[in-house]
């Protein structure tokens, strides 16, 4: 988080707003056995750029930050829940990385907490319907976007292929990047655009922009020793594809969203 | 299912329609590794009465069956996904009942399949929005109902307390019945009422009716040897409470929904 705030003022400020929104909604209340771990996992999850990208896309197309904040918060919840389920001991995933810190909860609690957080993400989204804004059709469209990004053709598919990859039964690294980080960031950008009132053309441009950002991030996080040059080439190409999508928008307005092209470890 | 069809013509016919609806939407398509287990678990799950109760509530308040069929299908998906996650080996649940048949999938696949089915349930619901029916606000309200029934104050809470109960660390059997079967059936009836255009008073009456049906079912399924008399008393009391809720409605119309009072093992 320290690195994020220094290098990424836009991401850091939006993420702080998302946290405020989530803290208003996720109280530590009875049953504590259920809400305490939920609180813990939501607020200890390493932030993903996808929620802030959702807000940036909304603002880029002329929407107000408030219109996207519930969806951005829901994206953070989806991300946190997916990480919990990914790290459960029963996932057939070879145990390569030790978990940071002591495991505070049993796998049974972690499984249920993930289920609870997914459900709460959809609840937050559905409750963001506001008759004064007449936004219910947009909110429903965003729910469909999010279920697809998280479901059997999105995150679930990517997680399955990642297990095969880690078990050396697959070499589809690109496929995993597309489905996991790629699809999740594409969803974030598309949802923000929808909520900000974008045209179909703008939505699809921002979806492709998000896909590039997510895949770049996955590549630069997963770079293997000896592969640095190749990865740099891929990232360079993705960055130029991403910038092409932004050409459509007014240059002065695209500054915030283009900052996500620097959210990389490389 | 054979017993269900004979004794419960209403339940059986509605369940058959729900299956048709689900078969149209859940195809066995690529990636097969993800969709094949999804198909298997959705169509092999023991049917719960809650989805048909949703349709019955919709019809009771003057709605058409079509208005509730997507929500009923989503309820079946939620039920199937909850059962998968409940039976995962990492749930801290003491292994009392052997699983029926050989375990066909690894725990990792089952975990991901459950996640995929939950997401697909919300997708089906959100897609049931129909501008011609102008039903988007009702659909959003139903999504909130369902996330609450499945989430940290509903099913997740019940599953957590059920583990404590099975480990003899708790004696709150009633609490588990309320949160799991009770809350799920209450949600089914309330969702059907909302989609059928019920008044707030009708929604709450049908919610309480569904709660009674669910708790009766949990009690009669969980009856322990030596406890038959006590359970019979509880079930009798719940049935009379449930019938009281139905008095509000026109007698001739309440026949289908009252048939759920006989969906019991006792």
TrEMBL record, chains A, B:
Transmembrane segments: none annotated. SUPFAM superfamilies: Terpenoid synthases. It holds the Pfam family polyprenyl_synt. Its cofactor is Mg(2+). It comes from the Eukaryota. The keyword Transferase applies. Signal peptide: none annotated. Keywords: Magnesium, Metal-binding, Transferase. GO terms for molecular function: metal ion binding; prenyltransferase activity. Belongs to the FPP/GGPP synthase family. This is Heterodimeric geranylgeranyl pyrophosphate synthase small subunit chloroplastic. It comes from Prunus yedoensis var. nudiflora.
């Amino acid at each position: 988080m320290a690195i994020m705030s220094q290098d990424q003022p836009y991401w850091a400020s939006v993420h702080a707003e998302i946290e405020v929104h989530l803290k208003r909604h996720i109280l530590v209340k009875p049953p504590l056995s259920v809400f305490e771990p939920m609180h813990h996992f939501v607020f200890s999850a390493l932030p993903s750029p996808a929620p802030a990208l959702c807000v940036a896309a909304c603002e880029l197309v002329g929407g107000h930050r408030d219109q996207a904040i519930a969806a951005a918060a829901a994206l953070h919840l989806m991300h946190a829940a997916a990480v919990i389920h990914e790290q459960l001991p029963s996932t057939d995933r070879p145990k390569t990385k030790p978990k940071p810190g002591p495991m505070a909860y049993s796998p049974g609690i972690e499984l249920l907490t993930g289920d609870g957080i997914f459900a709460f993400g959809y609840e937050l989204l559905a409750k963001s319907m506001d008759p004064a804004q007449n936004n219910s059709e947009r909110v429903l469209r965003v729910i469909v976007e999010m279920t697809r990004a998280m479901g059997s053709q999105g995150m679930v598919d990517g997680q399955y292929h990642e297990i095969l990859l880690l078990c050396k039964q697959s070499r589809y690294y690109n496929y995993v990047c597309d489905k996991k980080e790629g699809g999740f960031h594409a969803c974030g950008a598309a949802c923000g655009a929808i909520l900000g009132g974008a045209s179909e053309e703008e939505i699809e441009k921002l979806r492709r922009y998000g896909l590039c950002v997510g895949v770049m991030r996955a590549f630069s996080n997963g770079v293997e020793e000896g592969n640095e040059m190749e990865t740099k080439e891929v990232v360079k190409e993705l960055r130029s594809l991403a910038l092409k999508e932004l050409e459509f928008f007014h240059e002065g307005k695209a500054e915030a969203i283009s900052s996500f092209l620097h959210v990389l470890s490389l």
